[in-house]
Amino acid sequence: MTNQDKSIIAKEMFRLAGDGKKRKDVTFKYSQVGLSNKLGISNAYVSNMIGGKWDNISDAMWRKVQAILRIDFDWNIAPTFNYIEITKLLEKSKKEKLTVGISYNAGAGKSQAYIDFDRLNHNVIYVECKNYWKTKSYAKNLLNVAGLESDGTLEEMVDTFINHVMGLENPVIIIDQMDKLKDGAFDLFMDMYNDLFRCCSFFVSGVPALKKRILRGAKNDKIGYREVYSRLHRIFISLEELDLEDVRAICQANGITDEEQISLIFNQCEGDLRVVRKQVKKYFILQEAV
After folding, report:
1. Is the Cβ–Cβ distance between 109 and 249 less than 8 Å?
2. How many whole angstroms separate alpha carbon 210 and alpha carbon 101?
3. Domain boundary residue among 231, 252, 280?
4. ∠ CA(282), CA(244), CA(81), 5° rounding?
5. How many other C-beta atoms lie within 10 A of the C-beta of residue 146?
6. Is position 138 within any domain?
7. Helix (H/G/I), strand (E/B), else coil: 253
8. pLDDT recorded at residue 290
9. 3-state secondary structure (DSSP) of residue 5
10. Can you tell me the distance from the alpha carbon of 19 to that of 10, in angstroms, rounded to the nearest whole number?
């Protein structure tokens, strides 16, 4: 971890939480305490990282912060069609307190759009769900990404989260990879929605299994699934397949301008942006080996 890398991380931390000093006409996404809750590190570490006091901070700590804040040192994001459309939909959803469901193939650029929208906007709560989470783990992570302490019983954590969101201006909750949630955590969406739909936007997203799960549960009258389907207004937004223009934009943003190579990467990717990234990096590795 070089000092240049640390400076990039510290700059992003400052952008999110400032240096503890009040400034006129400047509002940060988190307080330093809130950022420390999100990162799972002490407030002292946050303060020292932002303040340039790095002597006693290990590279492992810097790498942890980099990973949680999703900072890429060697990759540039390009505005693909889906990225632009999802961002527009998020902006509209946030403004008008809409509830939106997206169920589409992995690698289409959904998560990156959510990550950047969360990074660049206030009162956005983005959680990426995991297969192994139980309901309490889910509630704990909702609190963490919101910059809140995650202590207490499940009921206490849910109440803390709901009360926090109620006090925000035009909040949006983005639940990514919702299809991975177990039934108990999945059902929590309905409870949150019932308490918050008048003051909050919800954006739920996953692979095609999400839509199938909800439709199957509703058809079989499984408890809660008709309600979830209703909350989503019985609509799932469809995205577009990755096209050559998308791949060209990504390649050019990351230093590849050769049209033959761009076409080759497009033909290899099969509509998956993860493959595009892998092939771009492979290209430069092979170039260095020549």
Report:
1. no
2. 9
3. 231
4. 105
5. 24
6. yes
7. helix
8. 60
9. helix
10. 10
Judge if 14 and 100 occupy the same domain: no
Contacts of 174 by beta carbon, 8 Å cutoff, 6+ apart: 90, 114, 117, 118, 124, 125, 126, 127, 203, 205
Residues 6+ apart with CB under 8 A from 43: 32, 33, 36
- pLDDT tens digits for range 159-212: 999 999 999 999 999 999 999 999 889 889 888 998 998 999 999 999 999 999
> What pTM was computed for the model?
0.93
**What local confidence, expressed as pLDDT, does residue 259 receive?**
96
In a 13 Å sphere around the CA of 145, the CA atoms on its Cβ side amount to 23
Of 201, 231, 261, which one is at a domain's C-terminal end? 231
Cα dihedral angle (210, 214, 220, 224), rounded to 10 degrees? Answer: 130
Tens-digit pLDDT profile for residues 138-154: 999 999 999 999 999 99
Q: Which residues pair with 205 in a beta bridge?
A: 102
Taking Cα atoms as reference points, which of 227, 236, 241 lies closest to residue 205? 236
**Cβ-proximal residues to 77 (8 Å cutoff; 6+ apart), any chain:** 83, 112, 116, 253
Mean pLDDT by 10 residues, the chain (290 residues): 95 93 83 95 96 95 96 94 96 92 93 95 96 95 95 95 96 96 89 91 94 92 86 89 96 96 96 95 84
